Amino acid sequence: MSLIDWKDEFSVGVASVDHEHQELIALINDLHDTMQSQATQTAILESLGEIYAQISAHFALEEKIMRDKHYHALPEHKLDHETLLDELLDIMDSVEDDGSYQATELSQSLNRWFSDHFRTHDAKLHKQLG
User: Highest-confidence range of 24-38, 42-56, 93-107, 111-125, by mean pLDDT?
Assistant: First the structure.
């Protein structure tokens, strides 16, 4: 069962960014499914590591586009990116240190963050780029 479904409102109007958004949603949905099956600590860490790597690369692309377009809200958008990356590192540290994770809480956090980010920061970006 998908945690996050792609919606047209998530589109920023840049094909490469939208494609990466869809790939990130797929990774998050895979992690969600993995956690539902009582996955091992190693499997969760691998999934989180992949999400972290993909998100980091995606944010670099998105921030380059914003710099190139002289996007006025880059500082706030970048801060939101940094907040998510910090939260993911904290989650990964917690899973690695004590081997535990709260599947429901983690899924809800990822869903909330991405849905909120798409609806706010990325929606503003879409308006400027569109």
Answer: 42-56
Rounded Cα gap, residues 67 and 74, in angstroms: 7
**Joined tokens for residue 50:** 């992949």
This prediction's pTM = 0.86
* Domain ranges within the chain, ordered by starting residue: 14-129
Which positions ≥6 away from 9 have C-beta within 8 Å? Answer: 118, 119, 123
Q: How far apart are CA 59 and CA 14, in angstroms?
A: 14
Mean predicted lDDT score pLDDT of the chain: 86
CA dihedral 44, 42, 96, 79 (to 10 degrees): -40
What pLDDT digit, counting tens, does each position of 19-64 carry?
988 998 899 899 888 888 877 888 889 999 999 999 999 999 889 9
Say if CB 59 and CB 81 are below 8 A apart: yes
Provide the CB-side half-sphere exposure for 61 (13 A, CA): 15
Overall residue count recorded for the chain in this entry: 130
14-129 domain in CATH 1.20.120.50? yes
